[in-house]
Design a protein that fits this description.
Number of strands: 16
Order of helices and strands: EEEHEHEHEHEEEEEEHEHEHEHEH
CATH class of the largest domain: Alpha Beta
Largest sheet: 9 strands, mixed
CATH superfamily of the largest domain: HUPs
CATH architecture of the largest domain: 3-Layer(aba) Sandwich
Shape: elongated
Number of domains: 2
Structural class: alpha/beta
Strand content: 25-35%
Number of helices: 9
Radius of gyration: 21 Å
């Protein structure tokens, strides 16, 4: 029987949205392959009603506030050997852990996949290459294989009405392993850019960090599901944190709506937003490359257009 294991990401007692998305992938994989799936999760999240896996193994961090990539890899390596396929979200933490896990277990790994199909009884995973222009079919060979799925590749699995009883999992902690006892949380209550349904992204056209209030006002008008992002030059200039950088060398997003404000649209940036369902570009340069990939475009001064757009959204016009 084919066994799929999800390595969960959680914050305290809550599973991440990206984890619930890969739970959907795990469920579909187990059905297609005639097997079952389970999840390895921090015991605090395992006690929450959001646990939806048929089989759940929980680990106790023994007073440690946060399991960093090194610690999570060590824990996962002790459990993953019982599975045929291990999957995790392709977040920054997920890709870090899966890379370490592949080396630890000497197992093949496909990172940042967007889907799968079953051919001759084996899963074949899909990866976007060259900025989404080409899709590669990846078949992994081995008794144990590892895959990470790009956020928003699947809809989150519905939360269960019943709490699944988690099975405690005994794990060893390395004596040389560093423990994180304090984790600073981001001050913003907005969703992560990889999980948001709406992303508003700013570029050098905003002219400086002091003008970011223009985008924040638009975010407030759009509601709590909107997240703030930026282009690489903006993060390179330290106008905004690197965690908001969207692009080939930053974070890939796939929102329902992506609003590019003052962004020229370099190839590297377009590669990170290619899976957006709808792209709206606002730029005063009619020849900006971003208009070639945008579904809708507004040519004009962003300092006039964006406040007008925010006001129109608030008024419902």
């Amino acid at each position: 029987m084919f066994k799929v294991l999800v390595i969960a990401e959680s914050s305290g007692d809550r599973l991440s949205v990206s984890t619930l998305e890969v739970c959907r992938a795990a469920s579909e994989l187990s059905v297609r392959l005639g097997g079952h799936w389970g999840m390895l999760v921090d015991h605090r999240a395992a006690e929450d009603a959001g646990v939806v896996a048929p089989e759940v193994s929980s680990f106790d961090l023994q007073g440690i506030a946060y399991a960093g990539p090194e610690m999570l890899t060590d824990i996962a390596a002790q459990v993953a050997k019982a599975a045929d396929l291990v999957i995790m979200p392709a977040t920054s933490t997920g890709k870090d852990v899966m890379g370490r896990l592949a080396q630890t277990l000497d197992a093949p790994l496909a990172q940042d996949c967007t889907g799968f199909e079953v051919i001759a009884g084996r899963p074949v995973f899909k990866r976007a290459l060259y900025g989404g222009k080409v899709t590669a079919n990846v078949k992994l060979s081995g008794e144990l294989t590892l895959v990470s799925f790009r956020p928003r590749s699947y809809a989150p699995i519905p939360l269960s009405d019943e709490v699944t009883k988690a099975r405690p999992c005994k794990v060893r902690f390395s004596e040389l392993m560093a423990a994180v006892t304090l984790q600073e949380k981001a001050s913003s209550e907005r969703p992560d850019v990889t999980e948001a349904s709406i992303v508003v992204s700013g570029g050098r056209g905003l002219q400086g960090p002091e003008n970011w209030h223009v985008l924040e006002d638009l975010l407030d008008a759009l509601g709590p599901d909107a997240a703030l992002a930026c282009s690489r030059p903006v993060s390179d200039e330290n106008w905004r944190p690197h965690s908001e950088h969207v692009g080939q060398t930053g974070r890939a997003v796939a929102p329902d709506l992506y609003i590019a404000v003052g962004i020229s649209g370099a190839t590297q940036h377009v590669a990170g937003i290619a899976r957006s369902k709808c792209i709206l570009a606002i730029n005063k340069d009619p020849a900006a490359p971003i208009f070639k990939v945008a579904d809708y475009g507004i040519i004009g001064d962003l300092f006039e257009v964006v406040p007008a757009l925010a006001a129109a959204i608030r008024s419902g016009t």
